[in-house]
UniProtKB/TrEMBL annotation:
<dbReference type="GO" id="GO:0004850">
    <property type="term" value="F:uridine phosphorylase activity"/>
</dbReference>
<dbReference type="InterPro" id="IPR000845">
    <property type="entry name" value="Nucleoside_phosphorylase_d"/>
</dbReference>
<feature type="domain" description="Nucleoside phosphorylase">
    <location>
        <begin position="43"/>
        <end position="239"/>
    </location>
</feature>
<dbReference type="GO" id="GO:0004731">
    <property type="term" value="F:purine-nucleoside phosphorylase activity"/>
</dbReference>
<dbReference type="Pfam" id="PF01048">
    <property type="entry name" value="PNP_UDP_1"/>
</dbReference>
<protein>
    <recommendedName>
        <fullName>Uridine phosphorylase</fullName>
        <ecNumber>2.4.2.3</ecNumber>
    </recommendedName>
</protein>
<dbReference type="GO" id="GO:0006152">
    <property type="term" value="P:purine nucleoside catabolic process"/>
</dbReference>
<dbReference type="InterPro" id="IPR035994">
    <property type="entry name" value="Nucleoside_phosphorylase_sf"/>
</dbReference>
<dbReference type="GO" id="GO:0005829">
    <property type="term" value="C:cytosol"/>
</dbReference>
Length: 272
C-alpha cells in the first residue's frame, strides 16, 4: 500500500469538513431560475453517454425542461416518459466537481431520486468489455466528496439504490458484479503502483465521480444509485482502450436499465 508521510504539524484543508448545509454561493443565485417556476421530475438519470441523450432527442422521445450552464457550455435537461413516469435526463459533465455541482442544481430544481450511468476502467482481468458493475463503495481519491462527508478512506453507496439496481438487473437477467470502485481526479496519474494498490484493497474499477455522487446524495438526503460498465482496462501491464466509447449498444442498454432503476428506486422511496 502506498503511504504518504505528512510533515511536522501539517494539516490538509481537505480534512476540514464543515457540516453546514448552506454555502455562500447557492445554485442559480443571481440567475433567477428558481423564481421562474422551473421544476424537474422527482426522478432523474445522469447519463454520461452523449450519443444516448442525443438519440432521445432525435427520436422525439424527449422534451427540453431547462438547461444547466457552465463556462464550458450548456447541458440541456430533458424529460422522458418511462412506464407513464416522467424522468429528467441530462449529461452531467465529467469529473467529480462538475458532476456534483450539476447534481446539486438538479436537487434544487426538484430531483429526489437520481441514478447515474457511465463507463469505468476495469482493474481486474475478469471484466469483459460491457460487464455491468454496481458500485457499493468508493475509495475517495478525489476532493469533492470531502466537502460533503467527514474524512474517511471510503464512502458507501445508498443501500436502497444498490438494492434497486440489483433488482432491475436480476429481473432482466443481466449478469453483473457488485463491489468497490476507485474515484480519482487525475486520469493521467493512475500509475502502475496505484493501480496495484487499489486492486489489492478490493477495487474493481476506476472512474472520476462515484465517491462524490455518494457523498452528495447522503449530505442532501436524496436517493441515489449508479450503474457502470467495464470499458477500458488497466488490468494488464499496459492500458487497453478496448474502444470502450464505441460500445454503443452496451451504453444504450445501460441507460435503459438506469432509467428503470430510477423508477424502481422512486417506488421504493414512495412506500417507505
Amino acid at each position: 500500500m502506498i503511504r504518504v508521510e505528512i510533515s511536522d504539524n501539517a494539516s490538509l484543508p481537505l480534512v476540514e469538513f464543515d457540516p453546514s448545509p448552506a454555502g455562500m454561493v447557492r445554485p442559480f443565485a443571481g440567475r433567477g431560475r428558481e423564481k421562474a417556476g422551473v421544476r424537474l421530475p422527482q426522478l432523474a438519470v445522469l447519463c454520461f453517454f452523449g450519443e444516448v441523450v442525443d438519440a432521445l432527442v432525435e427520436t422525439h422521445q424527449a422534451r427540453v425542461l431547462t438547461e444547466l450552464v457552465g463556462e464550458h457550455g450548456r447541458h440541456p435537461v430533458y424529460e422522458v416518459i418511462l412506464e407513464g413516469t416522467p424522468i429528467a435526463v441530462f449529461q452531467p459533465g465529467i469529473g467529480a466537481p462538475l458532476c456534483a455541482g450539476f447534481m446539486e442544481e438538479a436537487i434544487v430544481l426538484g430531483a429526489r431520486t437520481l441514478v447515474a450511468c457511465g463507463g469505468a476502467g476495469s482493474l481486474v482481468d475478469s471484466h469483459v468489455l460491457g460487464q455491468v458493475i454496481v458500485p457499493d463503495r468508493a475509495v475517495r481519491d478525489e476532493g469533492t466528496s470531502f466537502h460533503y462527508q467527514p474524512p474517511s478512506r471510503e464512502v458507501s453507496a445508498d443501500p436502497a439504490g444498490v438494492a434497486a439496481a440489483e433488482a432491475v438487473l436480476t429481473r432482466h437477467g443481466v449478469p453483473f458484479v457488485r463491489g468497490k470502485t476507485w474515484t480519482t481526479d487525475a486520469i493521467y496519474r493512475e500509475t502502475p503502483a496505484k493501480v496495484e494498490a487499489r486492486r489489492a484493497e478490493g477495487c474493481l474499477t476506476v472512474e472520476m465521480e462515484a465517491a462524490a455522487f455518494f457523498a452528495v446524495a447522503r449530505f442532501r438526503g436524496v436517493r441515489f444509485a449508479q450503474l457502470l460498465y467495464a470499458g477500458d482496462s488497466l488490468a494488464g501491464p499496459v492500458w487497453a482502450s478496448r474502444d470502450w466509447q464505441q460500445a454503443l449498444s452496451t451504453r444504450a442498454r445501460l441507460f435503459r436499465l438506469a432509467a428503470e432503476t430510477c423508477v424502481e428506486l422512486g417506488r421504493a422511496e414512495a412506500v417507505s
